Amino acid sequence: MKKYLFIPFAVALAFAACKHEPSHNKGESVSEVRFAPPVVKPDAESIDATAEKSMEVAMPEANAIQIDEPVGVADVKQVVEERPAEVQKKIIKEGDIRFETSDVAKTRKQIIASLKHLGGYAEDDSETTDGDAGSKEYTLSVRIPAKNFDAFLGTVSSTATKIDSRNIHIKDVTTQFIDTKTRLDNKLQLEKRYLNLLNRADKMRDLLDIEEKLTQIRSEIESTQSQLNYMSKQVDYSSLTVTFYTKQPEQVAAGNGFGYKLKNALINGWESLQGLFFGLLANWYLLLMIAVLIIWIRRWRGKRRLAKQA
């Protein structure tokens, strides 16, 4: 501030000195007196503004690959990673539900109809029948658009007689998605740079080195793109495993009645008798030995009785 106050004072002194200077002849030329502008130290605001402006100019160059020589594989540097300004959240939703229903065939038909209506599809469809327990079970592994997941889950729950378990897992993969997308963009930019180098290369050694590097970069691009596609599919389509079963009502009801117990007792007795018969038949040589022994004993008794009578 003191330097700014000194400027008007210096100008006034110079003007006074010029006014009291002796007059020149008419033929002589009068030279104009000029003062150099004062050196003013910029304040903090001007420094920040200048730095911000320089940063804005330098930012486009930060994303470029720096190359010191026209052709040189070793001089190619990694692209500076940058994140998108705004990215929609990436959520993966998975779950499973198990319940009992009165009619598995009808329940399956309702679930499949609802699945098609909401734009989903079934990856796996299996059926299991347990004769001893008297139950039939279906398992459906389905994929449903993420926006329709809750609606489909409500439809499935409404068909249940009794829900045994229901588990829903939600995973936020936004950061992982951004990192994968950024790596893919950087590799694509690096591939373009190497393609430009390939067009400018005039030595066989440089051509071979660039081709080898391009092959490696393209392999990395395919791998990263596959990861991104898989993650996008997981985000767009949620997965749900639906397991539902039913018990045979007539067998369950009859299991506690007198008629059912009597029927089982007769069946079990007949099966035991059959087992005994076939068991003895399998040991026929023992039966033969017993028959021979009985005949010999009877004859021996008969001879002994005749001897006593004589």
TrEMBL record:
Q: Which residues form a coiled coil?
A: 187-227
Specify the superkingdom: Bacteria
Pfam families the record matches: DUF4349
Give the transmembrane region(s): 276-297
Keywords (alphabetical) are: Coiled coil, Membrane, Transmembrane, Transmembrane helix
* InterPro entries according to UniProt: DUF4349
Q: What is this protein called?
A: DUF4349 domain-containing protein
Q: Domain (DUF4349): give its ranges.
A: 89-295
